[in-house]
Amino acid sequence: MKKIKNMDVEWGYSGTRGPEHWHELCDWFKEGASYPYQSPIPLHHQKIDASAINELAFFYEREHFTEKEFKNTLHFVPYDTKSYVLFNGVKYSLTDIHFHMPSEHIIDDHQEELEFHLVHMNEQKENLVLGALFTLSDTGGLILKNQEGEVWDFDNHTEWFNPEIFLPEKKSHFYYVGSLTTPPTKGPINWFVFDTVRTMNRNFVTQFRNEVAENNNRPLQPIKDRKIRYFTGVKKE
Question: How far apart, in Å, are the Cα atoms of 182 and each of 20, 66, 135, 157?
Fold first, then answer.
């Protein structure tokens, strides 16, 4: 029997179609939920295997995006896949940027107000996701606006920016293997969660937060026996 794909099934973050019931909504979601190492998970600096430099390198550049509201969040989708990362010598192209409020990953028992996910895919259709956490401020913080070649035109659904603006300058991060955090929650997924929490101006967030009516964070999942590593940096381009 043909599996029903994600875009054909209504799901959300509460009620009978919330996270506790995703695996019941269709066979495809059930198959994804069967992967034993689900995401997100709690992360702790004291409970990790620390290492120096991870085999991760960034090759990001300014490119054209459009924003699309679907499946309970707003997505920035590149017209071309110019930006990419190399992980252990394998190229993963950036395919999507979206957000969760509040954050899905929790570091040292503290949940932030906002988490951006930068989703990448290699030629084998395997995913790699970067997680960047933010707190919000009414008076300061990162303000994404039309400057230095950036364009944020939400009325016409067109943006030009370098996706590196979502990443902290200091690239220390947690690394673990998990799953997607939205249906079909399949794995394995290489996860990199930066531990530097940046501040974003609330005025920018409200431009797209109004498109999402409810909180869209999946609850924490069991760590089980998986290994979580911490890296102080990444390879230089």
Answer: 12, 21, 22, 24
